[in-house]
Amino acid sequence: MRCLFLFLMLSCALSVIARDPVEGEWRVNGGGPVLLLRQAHDDADRIEIVWVDGPDVSVRRGSVVGYAVPAPEAGVYDCVGLDPRSSKGRKGAKAKNSEFVMRMDREYGHTLTFEPYKRSKSVDVYRFFPWWLRVRVKTTDTRPKGLDGARRTDAPPPFIVL
Prior knowledge:
With 162 residues, this protein is mainly beta. It is built from one helix and eight strands. The longest helix is centred in the N-terminal third of the chain and has 15 residues, at 2-16.
């Protein structure tokens, strides 16, 4: 009786520890790499992005290539992508890390979309010139949002593709 009670308490305790819905294997679209998103061993609030397989042979299998932190909104994660090749190459080379937001599909939960963003500070040297010498730089980006993303590979899709 005591063993049965201990077993039930242990199973209830393990069921309370919920897995984050984004955890699992994902294939980046366009024949990209397969990434594993898992709970970080050292920090319970962070999710590791681990390289499983991909076309870039310079990245070793099992390398941590980024971290994700859940945002207050469900299914949204603030991510930092680490450059796994930054320690190789010429000395003093600065790591080329990227920052992006990862959004999980709310309806089915089998797709992710990546939205990159940048944070930086700069000084506009054109402010030192008189107004008639100033040149405005315009950036135009007509690429639609939601094209970068990944699909879950560790579970079958909830619909049949014909």
